[in-house]
Write a structure and sequence with these properties.
Blueprint lengths: L4 E8 L3 E3 L15 H5 L8 H7 L8 E7 H4 L15 E5 L11 E3 L2 H10 L4 E6 L1 H6 L6 E7 L7 E2 L11 E8 L5 E7 L2
Parallel strand pairs: 1-6, 1-7, 3-4, 3-6, 4-5
Antiparallel strand pairs: 2-8, 7-10, 9-10
Length: 190
């Protein structure tokens, strides 16, 4: 198999990737779970965080990021209009939007992912959100959950409100940290 679509995301114990207001500040950003996040998964760390930490993305896991409009929206994130300058950035939107020239915009996420999988390169990072993950559920090859020891009660669900058939995944690696966070990797069985 060539490139994979990897849904790598923080999630609460009750299956939410964000609180009811869309925020994710409740997910802890300190603790022993940060070592693999800033090391092994460093390609998925936004450029401004690398800059603040004086680190850089190694370019060994991902070379492309796919994000829904609400995940990307610069108006929400203080005007940040290019969060992953070290990756090819693709934003999915059903509405006409304006993005910087170096960012791609698509209204066909399934078609775009199928096209990307035909190209040579590293894996594709599905950054979010839940609605986009639901739309791409059949295309997801690897699921990496950073499971945090908290409950939101409601919010943005891992796969949005999409209706789909059962999606079989098998666990391939689980790590539990003293912080209470677990990183669980699953591969899709087809």
């Amino acid at each position: 198999m060539g490139r994979k679509l990897v849904y790598y995301v923080a999630v609460s114990l009750d299956g939410y990737i964000a609180a009811p207001d869309g925020g994710f500040a409740a997910f802890p950003t300190e603790g022993d779970h940060m070592q693999p996040i800033l090391g092994e998964y460093a390609d998925a760390v936004p450029a401004h965080i690398h800059q603040a930490l004086r680190t850089s993305a190694p370019g060994t896991k991902f070379d492309t990021v796919l994000m829904g409009w609400n995940t990307y929206n610069p108006d929400i994130y203080g005007g940040l209009d290019s969060p992953y300058t070290h990756l090819r950035q693709i934003v999915v939107s059903r509405s006409a939007r304006t993005v910087p020239e170096h960012i791609e915009l698509t209204g066909d996420p399934v078609g775009k992912v199928r096209e990307l999988k035909q190209d040579a390169g590293l894996d594709i990072y599905l950054c979010g959100g839940g609605q986009l993950a639901g739309a791409l559920s059949e295309e997801i090859d690897t699921l990496i959950l950073k499971r945090h020891p908290l409950v939101f009660g409601s919010g943005i669900a891992l796969f949005g409100a999409a209706g789909y058939a059962a999606l079989p995944f098998v666990p391939v690696r689980t790590r539990t940290f003293d912080s209470g966070v677990s990183i669980i990797e699953y591969e899709r069985t087809r």
